[in-house]
Each structure stands twice: as C-alpha cells, then as structure tokens.
Hints:
The protein is α/β, with parallel strands linked by helices. The chain has one domain: P-loop containing nucleotide triphosphate hydrolases (Rossmann fold). The protein has a six-stranded mixed beta sheet with strand order 2-3-1-4-5-6, with helices on both faces. The longest helix has 29 residues.
Amino acid sequence: SALSxxxxxxxxxxxxHPKDDMVLPTLNPELLLDSLIVRFLTKRFIGDYxxxxxxLYSRLVHLDGEQVAVxxxxxxxxxxxxxxxxxxxxxxxxxxxxxxxxxxxxxxxxDYSSYxxxxxxxxxxxxxxxxxxxxxxxxxxxxxxxxxxQVQTKDGLQLAKELGILFLEISTSENSHGVCDVxxxxxxxxxxLHHSSSTDKRRSSIIPRPKSPNMQxxxxxxxxxxxxxxx
Length: 231
C-alpha cells in the first residue's frame, strides 16, 4: 500500500545508566545503538554496536492497512556527548522528550539499579512532556537470563500499575517477535493520539454558522434610522 500521508511517528527509547551509586537517573552513553532498536529494524540480534551519535533510525510499519513512517531515537544518541554528569544527561533527555510522541522506558532484569531509575525517569518525562495522554511503556529486557535475574516480573508489573502505564517483559536475544510487538503497540497508541488531535483541530476550526437575521428587527432599526435623519 502507499505510504500514509500522516506525519511520522516519533518514538524515544529511554535507557538508564547501569550504575549503582546514582543520585539522579542518568542515561547510558556507551550503548549508542540499542539492541532493541537493532532487533526491530533488522530482526537480528547484535550484542556490540559501533557508536552512532545522535542518529535517528527510521522504518515503515503497517498500521490499519497503511504504511506509516516511524522515527526512533535512543537517549544515549540524544546526549551526543560522552558524559556521565546527571544534570547534562537529564537536560539531553528533556530535549528528546519534547521531540518524542511515545516512550519506551527500558531496564534490564539483570540490573536492579536500572529498574530503580524507571520511576524518576518517568516522572521527569511527565514534567517535561505535559500531555498526560502521551503513551509510555515500561519494558523489562533480558528476560532469558534467569540465572542473573535481579528484578522479578511482579516488580515490573507493580511499578507499571502504580504509574498507570503498560508493562512488557521481553528477551531481545531470543527472538524478534516480542520486540516487534512492543513497537507495534506503541505505534498504534501514538497513531490514536494523532487521530484524536487532528479530530479536535477539525472541530475547533469549524466556524459556527451565524443565526438567520430577524427581518422584523432589521425593518424596525431601519425605520428608526430614517426617522432620526428626518428630524
């Protein structure tokens, strides 16, 4: 089918820095191309990636019988600098958050500190991106590493319930199905928001039809105007 005329969907992948002594949640500048994005774009799993600072990754997805362009950026790419300073990282996140229309908050089930970063990152995104309708999904990755698991599935579910958002647990290394499901769901939610916003704009742009003039009132005013001139 032809490419949809709707504007591209902008998705942001938020990846906490795997560091135990964080005062503020930071972003990981080492993973400049996340395996989750690689899986979605190529269906392949790549464990190590070359730096690709600040790039956008694009793909066409099928939504409601149409092909829609999707642009994806991860927060390490947003940073564009190799820094672990929390303030600079949160500033980078703020810039990305204003651009994005949908968010994946990704933690590793093998790293408890990355899980603990999800709540403050979510709160920061909501502060910067004021539209409460903007879809956000929590994603627990590396679910296949049972021997190294530090975060239980119930922990992810509980956090998502408290924040009022969706939680999914996947394994990027095992297959691409779960990864594609995550992105497809987020794309659908963003697309719904696009449709809702365009409907609201159309409604607000409709000019109300003026009421039919009262002919008797017009005649009365006309007579009054004539009589005042005669006087």
